[in-house]
Amino acid sequence: MLAGSMSAGVCLAAGRAAWAMTVGVNTPRVVFLNPGEEVERGTGQHWQLVSWFMAATAARFGMQLEELYTERDHLLMLRQAETVAARNDPPDYVVIVNEKMAAQQMLHALARSPAKVLLIHNDLTDAQRAETGNERGAIANWIGTITADAFQGSFRLMDYLCSQIGGRPARVIGITGDPITPVSKARAQGVAAALARKPQDHIAQLVYGDWSCADDRDKARVLLSRYPNANIASGPRTIP
Hints:
CATH superfamily of the largest domain: Response regulator
Mean pLDDT: 87
CATH class of the largest domain: Alpha Beta
Strand content: 15-25%
Structural class: alpha/beta
Number of strands: 8
Radius of gyration: 21 Å
Low-confidence stretches: 1-24
Strand order of the largest sheet: 2-1-3-4-5
CATH architecture of the largest domain: 3-Layer(aba) Sandwich
Oligomer: single chain
Number of helices: 8
Number of domains: 2
Largest sheet: 5 strands, parallel
Helix content: 40-55%
């Protein structure tokens, strides 16, 4: 967060100077185990956009970024984590995602590496944390976790969508992601909390998808046929 009257430009310049003093002539090396597809084949551009943003950030701060795409295959992602952990010349940092609940195994595999590990986007579940512990605990090189506030995001989105139907009772149909991941649960909880404030608003049905366009399209057609009076449809992308 920017402090007081300090401009973004001043903060960025100060950050660059501090970074340069910290790393000196060394170039920090980062490996990102990207759970998505390198070439979009029907599961959306989310992880490609994450990749592009990360590459731009690495270039700005003089970091070397290596991305390994796992093509939505969590078993491949685990094998990649094990391969990175076994490198004789390890990276400085490894960025991972709890895709299909694989992060717990990846953290244990990467514990053998001197690389520092950062978990992003999808946190460990409470059950996983009960077994593995928290950051900088039993797995000392797991230095942190960065996630968005999915609850507030879906809450505010539902607020906006309800404002677009002219005060009529909301009849919501929705598609979200994997039912066992924390981010999907938080999205669903945010929608439910937003609608719970008015007794006339309700969710007709919320279903879980696999993040493929074909699956989303099929589920959307079924929901629209089943609930012809629905006036709000919420999902991962616009479906024709």
